[in-house]
Amino acid sequence: MKIHTDVTTLSRLYPLFKEAGIEGVLTGDFSLIQDLTLPDLAARFLASGSMPQICATITKSDAYISDDPDSAPKNWEECSREECR
Fold this sequence. Notes:
Layout: H1 7-19, H2 24-27, H3 38-48, H4 51-59, E1 63-64, E2 74-75
Antiparallel strand pairs: 1-2
């Protein structure tokens, strides 16, 4: 899975991160997230319902594509938590 972190991608992610209350990850304002663990951050995305949109944005793909060539692409909404890491 290829991750894109260009300015356009970050601009599209910002409202989703802000909605989840963790925009400090993108802005560098770590005081907003200093007490959060990685599971806390993931929980914020899951609670906001934005995980599939975030995955689609950072991969520039509407589907998860496994590294296993025998696996078919899968819509992000159908992916497990582990596939979204």
